[in-house]
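If you are new to this repository, start here. Below is one unmodified record pulled from the training split, so you can see the exact layout before writing a loader.
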Amino acid sequence: MNPPCGRCHKAVYPTEKINCLDKYWHKGCFSCEVCKMALSMSNYKGFDKKPYCSMHYPKTSFTIVTDTPENLRLKQQTMLNSQAIYKEEFEKNKGKGFSVVADTPEMQRVKKTQDQISNIKYHEEFEKSKIRSDAPPPENRQEEYEQQQPPCPNTFSQPGAKMHPAAVAPPGGGRRYQALYSYSAADADEVSLLEGDLISDAEQIDEGWMYGRNQRTGQRGMLPANYVRPI
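And here is the target side for that same chain:
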């Protein structure tokens, strides 16, 4: 059985049938509800299951609310409440010099990470200052080291032997430094250090390295500048 047309309500045969807007239409009946312009599946606009052209498609409009005395009173009350809340927030934040940031889980995570980084830096600086304060003066370090060294065989007196004073390197014109940490030379042109070693004739090469002589070993070479401090 052939379905009826959505406009003329006559039977629609398959050769002229258009299925649209939940109805069946004759090709000639599928037209605009207002101007009766023939439409197709590509240029129609449906509204309330009826076809329209672009010119006569019904436009939706908003409902206008009348400014009754009650609506005006509610509007004024809402404005007063907003001003009171704004003034209260302003008084709370006045003088703080920063805007209020919501305490979201992401902000809490960032704050916790920053606190952990600050604690790590604080402990690093504390340990460095503790090492500096616990280190004895350079003279005492040199005396302790000399006392711990075994006597040199050449210093014992022998019958008929003539005593010679130990050779001492002349003082250099460079600055003097003291080693804060121990360092093992990685190349032949570097100098190994022990904590508390004195460095003389020091010359800065660049920001990270310097050249000097280790008074304990007598070796000259390159050493890391951040491992020593001036004295």
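Two things worth knowing about this chain: Residues 100 and 191 are 55 Å apart (CA to CA). The first helix runs from residue 69 to 93.
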